[in-house]
Amino acid sequence: TNPSLLILPGDGIGPEVMAEVRKIIDWFGAKRDLAFDVSEGLVGGAAYDAHGTPLTDETMEQAQQADAVLLGAVGGPKYDDLDFSVKPERGLLRLRKEMDLYSNLRPAQCFDALADFSSLKKDVVAGLDIMIVRELTSGIYFGEPRGIIEEGNERVGINTQRYTESEIDRVARSAFELAMRRDKKLCSMEKANVMESGILWRDVVTEVAKDYPEVELSHMYADNGAMQLVRAPKQFDVIVTDNLFGDILSDAAAMLTGSLGMLPSASLGAPMANGRPKALYEPVHGSAPDIAGQGKANPIACILSFSMALRYSFDQGAEADRLEAAVEKVLAEGGRTADLLGEEGVTPLSTSGMGDAVIAALDAS
Ligand code: NAI
Ligand code: MG
């Protein structure tokens, strides 16, 4: 039987970029004999419109059963005034929580053709290919106690950074596994100088390293890490860090490489019975209501998210390489959606024009 893929296009440009990914999935089925059992469902505002909830129990169950889930984006102004309990984001949060996706992979990769696009000097980013692994289900965003309390005659805002050994252990293992498939170099970032959770983090990561003797492990304080990422990002291969630092560091690293329309992500959980990790793949960008429905959206972030699925869920690293090379070729030959245009007057490709260009490059591969 074919591996199963649940597609949740969502809102705004989500369905537009996903339509291009569908073309690419079909191409792999027809030309590379790599077929998937694809099913499609609703998430976010689209699910709310149809069912009054941003994610139905049926779709949640489908996601739990699927070999991988590919999501577009959720949200939009139409839903801004909804009650928090049914906001589009809640659909995505429920998926992440119930699938227990604790390891968030955010690559920062600079395609040579876009090196000029970075806010940094070309030689600092050209050829950059790093991966930030962010712990996604624990830490200060979830720790108790939390809240705003009265103390004396003023209010106090409280959040708690809390990590168990097992939470650190499992995300560290996923980062080491990743390092083994890449350049066997892992840098762990925390603030062990001022945080108890940082001391424990460093301790547990060092312990896990014993199971991966081939991986060269280093430790760095996260504030220095931020500086190093901007100063000389190519010194890194895989970075592993907690939820809060990972949120900030991965957003900063993302901007090393240019447009939001280029950035994929994966969120992985524990292995299922078939050995594949629970997995949700999605572009980093949102539903982009400002350009939705105009055929302007760049589908590459979503296409590269599918490429990550090929690599991390379906063990098709060579086919993922093929797809990424096709994207690289289109960019090298000057193919640009509007978000990637410089000042000069090149005619931009539409969303489907970019999808077709990638297909043409795949055909030529
Ligand atoms: P956004 O990522 O949707 O858009 C930010 C800017 O980047 C916009 O100018 C947009 O046109 C541009 N952009 C984003 N993706 C693009 C693409 N593929 N091609 C070309 N240009 C692109 O973030 P924003 O505006 O803060 O949020 C809009 C809506 O999306 C909100 O409802 C927000 O809650 C939701 N959102 C959803 C996310 C998700 O589903 N994971 C993540 C972030 C925001
Ligand atoms: Mg963020």
Automatic annotation (TrEMBL):
One BP annotation, GO = L-leucine biosynthetic process
Q: Which residues form the Isopropylmalate dehydrogenase-like domain?
A: 4-358
Q: Output the InterPro entries linked to this UniProt entry.
A: IsoCit/isopropylmalate_DH_CS, IsoPropMal-DH-like_dom, Isopropylmalate_DH
Coiled-coil stretches are: none
Q: Which amino acid positions bind substrate, per UniProt?
A: R96, R106, R134, D223
Per its record, the protein catalyses: (2R,3S)-3-isopropylmalate + NAD(+) = 4-methyl-2-oxopentanoate + CO2 + NADH
Cofactor(s) of this protein: Mg(2+); Mn(2+)
Can you tell which superkingdom this protein's organism belongs to?
Answer: Bacteria
Q: Does this entry carry the keyword NAD?
A: yes
* Gene Ontology molecular functions: 3-isopropylmalate dehydrogenase activity; magnesium ion binding; NAD binding
How is the cofactor bound here? Binds 1 Mg(2+) or Mn(2+) ion per subunit.
What EC number(s) would the UniProt record show? 1.1.1.85
| Binding residue positions for Mg(2+) | D223, D247, D251
**Kind of enzyme, top EC level?**
oxidoreductase
Q: Where in the cell is it found?
A: Cytoplasm
Pfam families given for it? Iso_dh (PF00180)
Binding residues annotated for NAD(+), in chain numbering = 76-89, 286-298
Q: Which UniProt keywords apply?
A: Amino-acid biosynthesis, Branched-chain amino acid biosynthesis, Cytoplasm, Leucine biosynthesis, Magnesium, Manganese, Metal-binding, NAD, Oxidoreductase
What is one term from the GO cellular component aspect held by the record?
cytosol
Give the pathway: Amino-acid biosynthesis; L-leucine biosynthesis; L-leucine from 3-methyl-2-oxobutanoate: step 3/4
* Record-marked site positions (Important for catalysis): Y141, K191
- Protein purpose: Catalyzes the oxidation of 3-carboxy-2-hydroxy-4-methylpentanoate (3-isopropylmalate) to 3-carboxy-4-methyl-2-oxopentanoate. The product decarboxylates to 4-methyl-2 oxopentanoate.
Assembly, in brief, is: Homodimer.
Q: Which PANTHER family match?
A: 3-ISOPROPYLMALATE DEHYDROGENASE
Q: Which family does it belong to?
A: Belongs to the isocitrate and isopropylmalate dehydrogenases family. LeuB type 1 subfamily.
Quote the protein name from its UniProt record.
Answer: 3-isopropylmalate dehydrogenase
Q: Which organism is it from?
A: Thalassovita mediterranea
Taxonomy-wise, where does this protein's organism fall, top ranks first?
Bacteria, Pseudomonadati, Pseudomonadota, Alphaproteobacteria, Rhodobacterales
Please name the gene that encodes this protein. Answer: leuB
